[in-house]
Design brief:
With 511 residues, the protein is α/β, with parallel strands linked by helices. It has three domains: 2-192, Methylglyoxal synthase-like domain (Rossmann fold, 3-Layer(aba) Sandwich), CATH 3.40.50.1380; 234-345, Cytidine Deaminase, domain 2, CATH 3.40.140; 379-503, Cytidine Deaminase, domain 2. It has 20 helices and 21 strands. It has a six-stranded mixed sheet with strand order 8-13-12-11-9-10. Strands 16-21-20-19-17-18 form a six-stranded mixed sheet. The longest helix is centred in the middle third of the chain and has 31 residues, at 162-192.
Amino acid sequence: MKRALISVSDKTNIVEFAKSLVELDFEIISTGGTFKMLKEAGVSAIEIDEVTKFPECFEGRVKTLNPFVHGGILHRRDKQSHLDQAKELGVEAIDLVCVNLYPFKATIEKTDLFDDIIENIDIGGPAMVRSAAKNFDSVYIVTDIADYSGILEQLASSENGVDFRRDLMIKAYEHTAAYDSMIANYMNKRFNGGMGAKQFIVGEKVMDTRYGENPHQKGALYEFDKHFSSNFTTLKGEASFNNLNDLNGGVKIAAAFGKDNAVCIVKHGNPCGFAIKDTLLEAYEEALKCDPISAFGGVVCVNGVVDALMAEKMNEIFLEVVIAGRITEEAQAVFEKKKRLKLFEYGADRIVLSNDVLDFKHVDGGFVFQDADKVKDDEVRNSKLVTERSASESELKDTEIAWKVAALTKSNCVVYVKNGAMVAVGMGMTSRVDASQCALKKAKAMNLDVTGAALASEAFFPFRDSIDAAAEVGVKTVIQPGGSIRDDEVIAAANEHGMALYLSGIRHFLH
């Protein structure tokens, strides 16, 4: 008879799993609450202290840290010296270990009491998981409820299953590594401002991408807190690495305005069109006007529901991706005509953002880590008016749109918004003057009138030249952080041109 040790915090389906193990001629060893549940369900089991010959102690802090447990798991079945020593010491083999760990994440989400948090740090569980994983050649290590059925199939078959056990071993070490990382990150957040001596980034794999940025690179999508698994659905096509990067920029802009009917068109990670209108169809049409050439082969992010009428309009040009809160079945049927188009949705009336509080970027040899940037809804309203002229209510609305879009656009950037639609944008430039000139040149090429537009710059203007250039094309409202040694010159220029100039005092670089 083989023996299985079962000690789980998440007891979903554990009774059924244990009953199936008994039917496969396993003796069940269990602990604490798991043992109680199994006994109440009529599953034959023995309590852990019958194996350890020592009672659970220190309020359950010590139960499985014992040579009869770890010796039973760790001794090698292919070495006679191990088998002889096990017999000499009275250590009986444990052939399957089913463990999931104390709910540390759930604990820190519901309480800030440090004593409670400390008591929900598992010690014996990770030790058993690591022991069983180390001896995977002889022991099945089960850490995932989703693996129960597959394990039972393996046990019922005559196959050796070493490849299967190796996969379980890898998953087990991922499990304990993620668990310890979560604890270390929490402690550093609580006591070291989140910037401890070590930082751990743990994601769960969602899918492989077709390839990375280029065909010779591998790529995959990983998620935090089940964000994509819970919200993101592929309706048509396969997301590429570059698609996902473009989506990341676009959905954050489109969803930055709450429930407004916002549409953002993205190319190579940057917005080439954006608008908020009374309907999503109007928003798309206005967003497209900003730069229809760049929109060709681009990504359209819709903060709402795409219907058949909107789909017909989108089908007029080649788009690579459409992502929305939802895409109706009728719209999907319309899009079916476009074989290369990829469709994704969030299964909700609006785009669902994770609102990550942390951010990081790979650099050669490591990564830089920071608090995530976010534009507060009242930043424009709380900005300081430094000119004689103030903006009208409609101009302030355009200013708010321009400011949020600028914060989510690659630096150096400037964004021009008129009547709820982006009419010019310059981004990713080494000079803010270049960004301004590029934006206005493109607007002129598109026959877009920027007269009366609001201009946002995510960082301060170091000279008055950008203000002068904006005035030449009729810009009436400008927002920027301020903080230049030449702020007085910039303010004077705005007053000369009869502009409203607001200083936010907050910079929003995006590199």
